[in-house]
Amino acid sequence: MEANLVGDSKNTLRELIPLLQRKDDRSWQDKIEKEVKEWWAVLDKRAHDKADPLNPELVVHELSKRLPDNAILTTDAGSVANWWARHLRLRPGMAASLAGNLATMGPGTPYAISAKLAHPGRPVIALVGDGVFQMNGLAEMITVKRYKDRLSDGPLIFCVFNNEDLNQVTWEQRAMGGEPKFEGSQYIPDVPYAEFANLLGLTGIRCDDPAKIGQAWDRALAASTPVVLEVVVDKDIPPVPPHIKTMMAKKTAKAVLKDPDRVSIAKKGAKQKMHEFTESIKSVGGRSSEDGEE
Predict the structure, then answer these.
(1) Which residues form a coiled coil (predicted)?
(2) C-alpha span between 231 and 24 (Å, rounded)
(3) In 97, 172, 178, 282, which residue has its Cα 20 to 30 A from 26's Cα atom?
(4) In angstroms, how far is CA 86 from the centroid of its own chain?
C-alpha cells in the first residue's frame, strides 16, 4: 500500500507518530543497528588507510571528533562532499549545507562567509576542494580580509583539500564513461593556499602529515582570526560506494587499466572494499557465537 503525503516533513511526521503501534518484533531495528555499527567500523578503517600523503577521509574523520556543539558546516559538490557526507557525525544544534540538487561548483566558501556574518558567535567550517577554491575561494579570502573584524568571533575555517585534481569529475569519467583520467582537463596547479591566507593577515595552516592532522584541526579551531587550513591529500583514494552496479564496476575497471595512476588506484580501491568484507565476516562470526550460546 502506498500513500502520498504532501506537506512539511516535520509537521507530517508529528501527526503520524501518535498513529504508530509498537511492535514486539525488533528484528528489523536490530538489523539496521548492526549494519550501521558495521559501516562506522568500515569508515574508521578506511580513514586510517595509508595514503600519499594524507588520506582525505582521515581529515574529515578527525574533524568530526572535534566538532563544536553549535557548528555550521558547508561544502561544495566535489569529491570532498563524499567524505563530508560519510564521516561527519552531526549532532542536534548543528547545521550543514551543500549544493546538492544542481551540484553547483563554488558555493561552500560564500555559504560559510554568509553563515558567519548571520551568526557571528557560532563556529563555521567549510570543506572545499582546490578546484572550487581556485574558482572563487581565493578571491573570497579578500572579502574575508575586508570584514575580518566581523568574522573573528570564534572559529571560521576554510579547509582546502589540495590534490591538484578536479577529482569528482575524474572519478565520474572513470565510473560512468569508462575513460581514464585526462590530464589536460583534470590537472590543476598547486597553489600555496595557506601562505596566501598568511599574506592577507589571516591564519594559514598547511598539513601533509597524517600524524599531525588532529593537531592542525585543534590549532584551527583555537585561532583568533579566520583560517585557511590547507590539507595535501591523495587524489587516488576512490569514493567507493556501498553498492557498486555491475556496469559501473566494468567501466571503472576498463578506465583504470589505461589510467596513469592505475597501480595506486587499484591498490587503494581493493583495500577499501576489503574493509567492508572483513567487517561483515566479523559480524557473522559474532552472531553465530551468540546463536550457539542460546
Answers:
(1) none
(2) 49
(3) 282
(4) 6
Cα separation, 162 vs 189, in Å, equals 10
Tens digit of pLDDT for each residue in 191-209? Answer: 999 999 999 999 999 999 9
- Asked if the model's pLDDT at residue 178 lies above 80, the reply is no
Cβ atoms within 10 Å of 110's Cβ, excluding its own? 15
| Residues 204 and 197: beta-carbon distance below 8 Å | yes
**Backbone phi and psi for residue 117, each to the nearest 5 degrees, phi listed first:** -65, -35
Task: Answer yes or no: is pLDDT of 263 > 80.
Answer: no
How high does pLDDT run on average in the chain?
86
Per DSSP, the residues of 224-269 read SS-EEEEEEB-TT-----SS--HHHHHHHHHHHHT-TTHHHHHHHH
What is the predicted pLDDT for the residue at 62?
98
pTM of the model: 0.81
**Are β-strands 203-207 and 156-162 bridged in parallel, bridged antiparallel, or unpaired?**
unpaired
Give the span between the Cα atoms of 231 and 208, in whole angstroms: 6
Query: What residue segments make up the domains of the chain, in order of their start?
Result: 51-286
- Residue 98: what residue type? L
> Alpha helices, DSSP H only, in the chain?
9-16, 27-47, 56-66, 80-87, 108-118, 130-132, 138-146, 167-177, 183-186, 193-199, 213-222, 246-257, 262-293
Q: Which of 110, 59, 56, 91 is nearest to 235 (CA)?
A: 56
| Nearby residues of 184 by Cβ (< 8 Å), 6 or more positions away | none
CATH class of the domain whose range is 51-286: alpha beta
What distance in Å separates the CA atoms of residue 242 and residue 231, rounded to the nearest whole number? Answer: 26
Residue pair 160/133 in contact (Cβ under 8 Å)? The answer is yes
